[in-house]
Write a structure and sequence with these properties.
alpha/beta; 3-stranded parallel beta sheet; two-stranded antiparallel sheet; globular
Length: 87
């Protein structure tokens, strides 16, 4: 663990994460969502950014809204998941 001073001069502690671990996916939630698809906008996209699920479990694009989601919804349905979560 390393300690550094922040802008207010207070000490904050941070754990060092190896370079190897920083680039590995964190698939902790995968078993729960194997048969599911998450459909949404930038919030759903952040699931991929943080590597919480695999790409085939998330259909998301920034700035999506209910008016422009029909194509994504049809794509998600064609994947034949057991459940679709709409975020």
């Amino acid at each position: 663990m390393m300690t550094k001073s922040d802008a207010d001069g207070q000490n904050t502690s941070r754990y060092r994460i190896s370079k190897k671990k920083q680039t590995q996916p964190i698939y902790e939630m995968v078993p729960c969502y194997e048969e599911a698809v998450i459909l949404g906008d930038s919030l759903a996209e952040s699931i991929l950014d943080f590597r919480l699920l695999r790409k085939h479990n998330v259909v998301a694009k920034r700035n999506r809204c209910i008016d422009s989601i029909q194509g994504d919804l049809l794509f998600a349905i064609s994947m034949q998941p057991s459940v679709i979560f709409m975020e």
